Amino acid sequence: MAAEGDVDLDLEAEENCTGKPAEKPRKHDSGAADLERVTDYAEEKEISSSDLETAMSVIGDRRSREQKAKQEREKELAKVTIKKEDVELIMGEMEISRGVAERSLREHMGNVVEALIDLSN
Fold first, then answer.
1. Given phi > 0 = left and psi -120 to 50 = alpha, else beta, which region is 48?
2. Region Disordered: which residues (predicted)?
3. Which of 1, 111, 114, 119 has the fewest CB atoms found within 10 Å of its own CB?
4. One domain for residues 94 and 67
5. Largest Cα–Cα distance of the chain, in whole Å?
6. CA distance 95 to 101
7. What sign results for the dihedral spanned by CA atoms 52, 53, 54, 56?
């Protein structure tokens, strides 16, 4: 009977060995099922054309407003009178181009000191 008991233990040991690999595919299958749920959800959610058109029009409106504001700012800066000597002074002191010097002077309403301070920072 001892020999029969040994055989029973061996069978139980074989069942344990085959039982562990059987659990791994289940875990793998559950992961695949989770992945399918995620991809199914993403596929179900679609953007409607009307929502897309609305979003594009909002973006377009915002861009046009920003462009208009920029043009108005440029017009205001163009009205500011600056002296040629001031531009040359800033160009010489800061070693920058004429365009940058003029822009800085116009932004500071022709005030050389403020323009120089701003450029040095």
1. beta
2. 1-74
3. 1
4. no
5. 116
6. 9
7. positive
Q: Which residue has the tokens 């440029």?
A: 74
119 close to 96: Cβ distance less than 8 angstroms: yes
Q: Can you state the angle between helices 49-79 and 98-107, rounded to 10 degrees?
A: 90
Residue with tokens 């323009």: 115
Residue with tokens 């500011």: 80
- 110: Cα within 13 Å, side-chain hemisphere: 9
96 with 114, same domain?
Answer: yes
**pLDDT of 43:** 55
Helices (H) then strands (E): counts for the chain: 5, 0
User: Is residue 1, in this structure, part of any structural domain at all?
Assistant: no
Token couple for 79: 């009205």
Q: What is the pLDDT of residue 65?
A: 97
Cα angle, residue 77 at apex, residues 72 and 80 outer, rounded to 5°: 135
- How far is the C-alpha of 110 from the C-alpha of 106, rounded, in Å? 6
Number of domains making up the chain: 2
